[in-house]
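Task: sequence design from structure.
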C-alpha cells in the first residue's frame, strides 16, 4: 500500500518513511511548503491546512503538525512551536526554563488524512522532560532538549522512532489505513 505525505521537512519525511516500512506501507514524498494557520488546537491547524492543500495536491494525502507543550510555561510554545523555534530556538527555551524545577513537557503530533471527501485526524503524544542543556547530534528541531527516560531524542538516533509522538500518531493512522483498504 502506498500513501502520499506532504511536507517540506526532509527529517520528518525520513522518520515517517522508516516507520511506514515497519508497517509495510510505502510513503511517497510530496515536497511542498504550505501555509499553516496559527492558534487553536493542533487538530484545527492540521485540518485547515489539509483542506486548503486539497486544492493543490492530488488526494488522498496526509500531513502532520507537531508541537512541544511545556507544563511550567502553561503549554508554551504549543501551536507556536515552529515560530518559536525559528526565533528564540533551543537556547531561548533553555533560558526561559532557567531555575524552573518542573521540567515536564509533552510532544504531540497530529496527522490529518484527506481522502478526497473528508479529513480524519490521528493524535500521538509522548511525555518527557526539558533537558538542562542541549545534548545529542541526531534529529532536528527541539530534539536536543526533549528527554524521554533520561536521553534526548537527539541522543537516540533511530530509537526515537520507537517512542516518539510521531510514531504513536502513525501507529493509529497506519493501522486504520490497513483496515480500511
Ligand atoms: P511543525 O509540525 O513543522 O509545525 O513543527 C513545529 C516545530 O516543532 C518545528 O520547529 C519543528 O522543527 C519542531 N518539531 C516538530 N517535530 C519535531 C520532532 O520530532 N522533534 C523535534 N522537533 C520537532
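Answer:
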Amino acid at each position: 500500500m502506498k500513501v502520499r505525505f506532504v511536507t517540506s521537512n526532509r527529517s520528518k519525511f525520513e522518520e515517517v518513511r522508516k516507520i511506514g516500512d515497519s508497517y509495510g506501507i510505502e510513503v511517497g514524498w510530496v515536497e511542498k511548503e504550505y501555509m499553516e494557520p496559527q492558534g487553536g488546537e493542533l487538530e484545527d491547524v492540521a485540518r485547515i491546512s489539509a483542506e486548503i492543500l486539497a486544492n493543490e495536491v492530488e488526494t488522498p494525502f496526509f500531513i502532520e503538525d507537531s508541537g512541544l507543550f511545556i507544563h511550567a510555561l502553561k503549554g508554551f510554545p504549543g501551536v507556536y512551536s515552529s515560530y518559536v523555534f525559528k526565533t528564540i530556538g533551543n537556547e531561548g527555551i533553555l533560558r526561559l526554563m532557567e531555575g524552573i524545577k518542573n521540567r515536564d513537557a509533552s510532544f504531540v503530533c497530529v496527522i490529518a488524512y484527506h481522502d478526497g471527501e473528508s479529513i480524519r485526524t490521528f493524535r500521538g503524544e509522548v511525555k518527557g522532560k526539558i533537558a538542562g542543556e542541549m545534548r545529542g547530534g541526531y534529529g532536528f528541531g527541539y530534539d536536543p532538549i526533549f528527554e524521554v527516560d533520561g536521553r534526548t531524542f537527539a541522543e537516540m538516533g533511530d530509537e526515537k522512532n520507537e517512542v516518539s509522538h510521531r510514531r504513536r500518531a502513525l501507529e493509529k493512522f497506519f493501522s486504520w489505513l490497513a483496515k480500511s483498504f
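Residues 9, 65-67, 81-82, 85, 139-143, 153, 164, 166 surround inosinic acid (CB under 6 Å).
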